[in-house]
Amino acid sequence: MNLKKTILILFGLLILIFTISYFRIAIIHFLEEFALWAYPNDVNRNAEITKLIINIIGGIVVIFGLRAALIRAKASQNSVEIQSKSIDNQTTQIKLSTQSQTNEVFKNAVEHLGSEKESIVLGGIYELHFIATENPSKYAEIVSNILCSKIRTEASIKKEAEDISKTICQTIIDLILKTNIYNSLDKDISFCNLNSIKFSVEEIVNTNLNFSRIPYELENINFTNCKISGTKSIIGRYKNLVFDNCHLFGSYFRGTQFTNVFIKNSSGINKLICLDCEFNDVLLHFDFTASKFLGCEFKDTSFGILDLSSIDFSCSSFHNIDFGTSKIINCNFSGCGFVNTKTYNWIQNCKFLGIKNDSKYYSLFFEKQLEKSLNVSNMKGLSYNETTFLKNTVSKLTEQEMEKIKKVYQENLDIDNKRKKANR
Questions:
Q1: 140: which residues sit within 8 A by CB, 6+ positions away?
Q2: What's the predicted TM-score (pTM) here?
């Protein structure tokens, strides 16, 4: 097409040159007549006409030049648009190809989780995690749910520690608790045996640990918006913990030490069961109505400003305790020891049988501690306002009452045994 245009242009130029050459005398004569008409009084009229002709020719050349530039610009624009469409098509193809590859990797990774070989399962876990980090808006929640499902299966509450792959469970826990993309998501690791797992993280958020056996050791962790109801801990060691807006309803602790623990803004913590536990420098700013603290030791512990109602503290000891302005109603302090313990509000309908001015207790020797309270009634270690100390039972502990307390203690020991049988 360009060759044809070039030939036509050259052919037109030849015709134009030939015409001008052939009619040059007539053209010159015409131009002189036109100059005389246009500039009758100008002796340089031929020069003016020449300038005019040159300007006209120059304008025509400029117009043709602009037209050529416009044509080139349009051609360039069309080329750019074509290239842009081509790039868009390539990008779309790349995205489709990448998505296809991701889907294939995702499918394979999920299949790897079902392998009997630990190394293949770990590979699947990391593949899923990589997909989630690459596209968190699309995959983070899906991967989180899959990994949580895997740990619920692998570390089922029905399994003992030796039947659980610690490496697989620890890997999943580390990923879902330490990676920011999962923080805002609800993570369900309920009904799990996590006794041998480490929570090496500063904060645990939006995590469901209901009815799980929590790790033996927890330190320097903030639990926020977590569900910890029905959990179980035997001989646990918990230090520097904060529970903020967490649910601990019906949790079971035995022989567990709590040091510098702060529980606040929490609800649904009723019916806690704590046997032979130690509370050192603990802030219990929550309502734990109908809970049991049997044979427990409280040192430098604050019960906040909430009322204490229907709580069984039998055979526990209190050393440097300030109940503050909490109302204490329908609580059982039989067999307890008090040293430098204060309360300034109502104490009503409570039992103080066999009270001692003593706080030295020995964990896991509940019966021997109770026997120390027989035929004893010493309230010197408890400072209270006599005008608000109403309808309470203060007397020595009889053997009949001691047997009742032992029975309650044994019943709560049996709760743990019943849970074990139910989980098998």
A1: 132, 181, 182, 185
A2: 0.72
